[in-house]
Amino acid sequence: MSDAVKIGFVPFSAAPKGVLVLFTDESLKFGSASAKILGSATELVKRAAAASRFKGKSGSSLDILAPAGLKVDRLIVAGTGKSGELKPEDYIKIGGATVARLKSGADAVTIVAELPTAAMHPADIASIAAGLRLRAYSFDRYKTKKKDDDSRLKANVSIAVADVSAARKAFAPVDSTTDGVLVARDLVNEPPNVLYPEEFAKRASQLRKLGVKVEVFDTKAMTRLGMGALLGVAQGSVREGRMVIMRWDGGKKGDKPVGFVGKGVCFDTGGISIKPAGNMEEMKGDMAGAACVVGLMHALAARKARVNVVGAIGLVENMPDGNAQRPGDIVTTMSGQTIEIINTDAEGRLVLADVLWYVAKTFKPKFMVDLATLTGAIMVALGTEHAGLFSNNDELSERLALAGRATGEHVWRMPLGPAYDKLIDSKFADMKNTGGRYGGSITAAQLLQRFVDGTPWAHLDIAGTGIGAPASDINTSFGTGYGVRLLDRLVADYYEGKK
Ligand code: BES
Ligand code: MN
Ligand code: ZN
Questions:
Q1: What is the 3-state secondary structure (H, E, C) of the chain?
Q2: Residues 404-417: pLDDT tens digits?
């Protein structure tokens, strides 16, 4: 995890240092604390705004070096657009965009958390702080030479606020959630020679430090459970597969848990149905679902969420090999249902089939949500803006959509139904692992649904949102950490009384 920015809160009255960041909107006015700091420099800002046709639009800013009349090195005036229309998800972007403006060389930064109309609310300030950390993240563990053009930020950021203790209180849990996002990104960004199933299980085991109970199942244990689908994928690799069960019991004793399940294909070559070489390196990120579950468990445990949660991840490497499974093979899942393998590259659903069943049967969760970089087809349908949401439960779907809007981690519901389900019926087994050319994300979800045993369930296809999305205000790295903030919010809204 990178610690590029250190964040603290100070009162509005504190003297700003280094780089000063103020916010304005399309009125081009300033709030009272900002106006007080500016003092006679207000005139300078007005002239600079006129000279550069700055209109306070969202994403635009004024950048004034060595501003006369101020004891700071640089003044950035950032526009927020129409400040009355700012949504919760906008504040995190404001934080991220601020980091983008700072660049290297800024040791000290003061951000005044005020809009022209009023001081910002503690929750919005916390979002800005989270945005700062998310944007400042970079994965550079394997860069041995610091580049000259290194433009990454390393700074002490003071956020000036109306109420320091309220801001600290609001930020504490958000900071934990942000840690969880960065944990997930680190896992996704690690190279596949380093992060194979056994190593992944070791990293997940570090959650024990936060009070999470972690149980690791090896090949023998999974064989005993009859997890023939997961093991069928794993058998082509010299790296053994693992299943990891993580439990955070922060709720009432005996309360049924909620379940989160992640696809953890540490590398997906496609197996015998091998993928083309172009961009295959990105398939190190085929464990983004599992990374999200680990990041989420980190977040929930770190902020001591008052809820019982089970996190479950199926970890394998999908390789072509003399011992790899073949198209035509039939595997028997833990549920007893059989699956004919048509394409060994449709491996994620095989892994999830056994883990979903295990979680449904063992824990009887209130609901379960799985995350998986499952299909290229979901990227064709939804791009990188929405994860595909498939569910047997309208209420859970609605809650996920709301959490998506609150966090900016959006979901879009896709259909399920008997006509799609029929497409995976097989001549030789109970089902086959692909459903033909059309509706590829849906037939994948239909297979998963056959293993949830009636549990209220949602599947998030994060192939587009979890890895390789274009740089955004809050992320410039390959792994996005998508899903951690979404599901952390789902849990918060579900249990912590907002709804
Ligand atoms: N891991 C891939 C899906 C994927 C592709 C994720 C690109 C992220 C980026 C998955 O295992 C896969 O290979 N799916 C196949 C299914 C097909 C063989 C039915 C696909 O989408 O092509
Ligand atoms: Mn695949
Ligand atoms: Zn895959």
A1: CCCCEEEEEEECCCCCCCEEEEEECCCCCCCHHHHHHHHHHHHHHHHHHHHCCCCCCCCCEEEEECCCCCCCCEEEEEECCCHHHCCHHHHHHHHHHHHHHHCCCCCEEEEECECCCCECCHHHHHHHHHHHHHHHCCCCCCCCCCCCCCCCCCEEEEEEECCHHHHHHHHHHHHHHHHHHHHHHHHHHCCCCCCCHHHHHHHHHHHHHHCCEEEEECHHHHHHHCCHHHHHHHCCCCCCCEEEEEEEECCCCCCCCEEEEEEEEEEECCCCCCCCCCCHHHHHHCCHHHHHHHHHHHHHHHCCCCCEEEEEEEEEEECCCCCCCCCCCEEECCCCCEEECCCCCCCHHHHHHHHHHHHHHHHCCCCEEEEECCCCHHHHHHCCCEEEEEECCHHHHHHHHHHHHHHCCEEEECCCCHHHHHHHCCCCCCEECCCCCCCHHHHHHHHHHCCCCCCCEEEEECCCCCECCCCECCECCCECCCCHHHHHHHHHHHHCCCC
A2: 999 999 999 999 99
What residue's CA is closest to ligand 1, atom 3?
A: 375
Q: Which of 74, 263, 349, 399 is catalytic?
A: 349
How many A from CA of 98 to the centre of ligand 3? 35
Ligand 1 atom nearest the C-alpha of 435 is 19
Model confidence pLDDT, tens digit, residues 76-101: 999 999 999 999 899 999 999 999 99
What's the mean pLDDT when you consider all of the chain? Answer: 96
Residues within 5 Å of ion ligand 3, judged at the Cβ atom? 265, 268, 286, 348
Is 275 catalytic? The answer is yes
pTM metric for this prediction: 0.97
Pocket test for ligand 1, best of 375, 438, 465, 480 (most atoms within 8 A of CB): 375
**Tens digits of residue pLDDT in 267-276:** 999 999 999 9
CA 259 to centroid of ligand 1, rounded, Å: 24
Ligand 2 centroid to 348 CA: how many Å?
6
